[in-house]
Design a protein that fits this description.
Chain lengths: ~260, ~300
């Protein structure tokens, strides 16, 4: 028997993980919540923005969309966590690793499928929210158009958040091998560092610039905060979180008996 | 062929597998027997590259499992029939496994038919009975049409019809020239299926021999007799060097003399015999003798 090429084996694993992903209902529920919630929240926030009496400079017109995306974080991270822990809790992971003994290839295939779907979902949400928010703000002469410099990039970056959190969940699911533990760990990694925002002035920024949510806001607003990293560096911070978690998962997945 | 060479697996202070070596050959069903906790499942997980052994190695077809490029075409296995996503249909479950090894889609339909599951292919596996899950697990093992097959306690949960089917199925696989290793903690399940037996206890090899030799190797041969003058005959047997143990129901169980000698003895004294039965230990008895010292948890007798 001829040995199939690396590309063929990668395609086989992707097909397998795609079949698993699309053949359970939790996938559709999680994606539905991840798409509907932020779009709904963004319109509410936009109305609040538009109707609040103005004092000082007008707020960033992209902020409602950015804030609302954070409401999808739990849904997509749970989706990511379950991709591994759903297999660990039933023992299906042994079937998976028996069929594909190269465990890191399994991790890569799961990450690719999840990243592709959540990236599309995130961008759909980001642009849909943007459209709705600007339509509401435009009625109050505060909206901004997609052709405005810096806006397309900021909206694209906002859409990244779902993919980043989903991958973080996937990696921590592989690390914890336990659904409740995985979800708790993911929420903790995303939300607990946000406490840095409560620290006194210079420290809130010095620590806050490394947190996922602060960095994610920095790359998706029109007026970046001076106390955080520049948007390009903040984008690296955003990507570093799931990258680090995936690296930890890649190390542990081959060291432990499933 | 499966080769296990000086395999050991320790979990902290607990030794699950202890310097275990055996070879499973093609063309026959090999029973892998041992009490619960003997190390059967651990050994199978090591063979499949899931658990890392503390020492030794296991080879399938001369190669380590984790070196196989498309393992399901070389080894089919069923470790745990309940290892399913409850919300996924039988067909989607099998398709995802097939795709990972580049096995074409029509083969999924074939194994569903082979295991009698074609009628429930579109149903969610969470609603399956344990017997149906066992069939689904066997279907998954057959996807790659592999020359080597391993099943861990496959009979659990099957109804009598299913047990009959699975025994015939294993024998057919062996008759095809495949290597078939089937584990069980019950000898009665293996007695009618396995031609060769590997028996382990507390992670160690206790026996590795053809099923027929196992019975012959047993020292337990005796003669059961009934007679209206049992007590008198018992004294005569004792005088000839035999031992006669009276049973509660009046029968005698004789060791040290064979049935012919006992019959001759009774005839020469004019004692009528109502029954004279040479007895041999059953596979079950021999199995219990062999594994008796290695059971982790046994019913208290004292």
């Amino acid at each position: 028997m001829t040995v199939p090429s690396l590309a063929t084996r990668a395609r086989d694993l992707l097909a397998s993980e795609w079949t698993k992903f699309r053949s359970v209902r939790s996938t559709y529920w999680a994606l539905l919540v991840a798409v509907v919630t932020p779009v709904a929240v963004s319109t509410v926030v936009a109305f609040a923005f538009a109707t609040t009496p103005k004092s000082g400079p007008s707020p960033d017109p992209l902020l409602p969309g950015v804030i609302s995306l954070e409401y999808a974080v739990i849904a997509v991270s749970t989706l990511g966590v379950l991709m591994f822990t759903g297999e660990y809790s039933t023992g299906l992971i042994r079937v998976t690793f028996t069929a594909a003994p190269r465990r890191r290839a399994v991790l890569a295939a799961k990450a690719t499928v999840l990243a592709a779907v959540t990236l599309v979902a995130g961008e759909v949400v980001a642009f849909a929210s943007f459209g709705l928010v600007q339509a509401i703000l435009a009625g109050h002469h505060e909206g901004v158009s997609l052709s405005h410099p810096g806006v397309p990039g900021a909206v694209l970056c906002a859409g990244l958040l779902l993919c980043v959190c989903a991958l973080l969940g996937l990696a921590l699911g592989a690390v914890t091998r336990h659904t409740a533990g995985g979800i708790a760990a993911t929420i903790a990694v995303i939300a607990v560092p946000a406490i840095a925002g409560l620290l006194p002035s210079p420290w809130s920024g010095r620590i806050g610039r490394f947190t996922l949510l602060e960095a994610a806001q920095q790359v998706s607003t029109l007026h970046p905060s001076a106390s955080l990293f520049a948007p390009a560096w903040s984008l690296l911070v955003v990507l570093a979180w799931p990258a680090a978690a995936l690296a930890a998962a890649a190390v542990l997945i081959t060291r432990r008996d499933p | 062929m499966i080769e296990v060479e000086q395999l050991s697996k320790r979990y902290g202070p607990v030794t699950a597998v202890d310097d275990l070596s055996f070879t499973v050959r093609p063309g026959r069903v090999t029973g892998f027997l041992g009490p619960n906790g003997a190390g059967k499942s651990t050994t199978m997980r090591i063979i499949l590259g899931l658990d890392t052994p503390t020492a030794g190695r296991a080879l399938v077809g001369g190669r380590r499992y984790d070196g196989l490029v498309r393992p399901l075409r070389e080894v089919g296995s069923l470790l745990d029939a309940t290892a399913l996503h409850a919300g996924r249909t039988a067909r989607a479950h099998l398709l995802s496994i097939a795709q990972s090894n580049g096995i074409p889609r029509p083969r999924v339909t074939e194994v569903l038919r082979l295991t009698g599951l074609e009628g429930v292919a579109g149903r969610r596996a969470g609603g399956f009975s344990l017997g149906m899950k066992q069939r689904l697990g066997i279907a998954a093992a057959m996807l790659g049409d592999p020359p080597v097959l391993m099943f861990d306690e496959p009979v659990n949960g099957l109804d009598p019809e299913g047990i009959h089917w699975i025994r015939g199925f294993f024998r057919e696989l062996a008759a095809d020239g495949r290597t078939v290793l089937v584990s069980s903690h019950l000898m009665s399940e293996m007695a009618q299926t396995a031609e060769h037996l590997i028996i382990i206890g507390r992670g160690r090899l206790l026996a590795d021999l053809p099923a027929t030799e196992l019975i012959e190797s047993s020292a337990r041969h005796d003669v059961l007799l009934r007679s209206p003058r049992a007590a008198e005959l018992g004294r005569l047997i004792a005088a000839r060097g035999g031992t006669a143990n009276p049973q509660d129901d009046g029968a005698l169980v004789v060791t040290g003399l064979d049935a012919a000698a006992v019959g001759e003895l009774a005839a020469s004294h004019g004692i009528a015999l109502h029954a004279l039965v040479p007895r041999q230990a059953s596979l079950e008895d021999v199995y219990l003798d062999i594994t008796g010292d290695s059971t982790d948890y046994r019913a208290g007798l004292s």
